[in-house]
Amino acid sequence: MGKKDALKAYNSVNVSSNAAYADQVQLIQMLFDGLIESLDKAVGHIQRKEFKDKNETIGRAQKIIFGLQMSLDMEKGGELSRNLNELYEYAVKRLLHAHTRNDVEAVLEVKSLVNEVSGAWSMLPSLLKKKDIAAA
């Protein structure tokens, strides 16, 4: 097992062990962290013309986005869930474009969108705590 394989195995176990103890908000935040990491790597792979690695990282990013889409509760989430679903569909389309055209700008556009949504999710735990304190 090479250094790269060992690191992948460690990261996989680390994420799996963290996921076992995470609540739903933390799981979503972990997905966003993995998505942002994949987008950053994809930019580097495109710039260095490492096309095999680019294929893997963009594919991983798309799978994460599909996971985020599947986590949406369209009934309870209403308009917010519909808007997020549309954003995720747009992100997947832009990543497909980036993949076929080696377009760094398309990946950066998706990263910008993802950072905005991720930022909102990262604020959620503190908002929920304030709500719990106010209700007590």
Q: What percent strand?
A: under 5%
**Overall pLDDT, averaged?**
85
The N- and C-terminal alpha carbons lie at a distance of 53 Å
CATH homologous superfamily title: Flagellar protein FliS
- Structural class determined from secondary elements: mainly alpha
CATH topology: Four Helix Bundle (Hemerythrin (Met), subunit A)
CATH architecture verdict: Up-down Bundle
Q: How many alpha or pi helices?
A: 5
Overall geometry comes to: elongated
Helix % is over 70%
* E-strand count: 0
State the CATH class. Answer: Mainly Alpha
Summarize the structure.
The protein has one domain: Flagellar protein FliS (Four Helix Bundle (Hemerythrin (Met), subunit A), Up-down Bundle).
Word description of this protein:
This protein is mostly helical. The longest helix has about 30 residues, at about 105-135. About 20% of the residues are buried. The protein is elongated and about 55 Å long. The N and C termini lie far apart (about 55 Å). The protein has one domain (about 25-135): Flagellar protein FliS (Four Helix Bundle (Hemerythrin (Met), subunit A)). About 90% of the residues lie in helices and about 0% in strands. It contains 5 helices and no strands. The protein has helices at about 5-20, 25-45, 50-70, 75-100, 105-135.
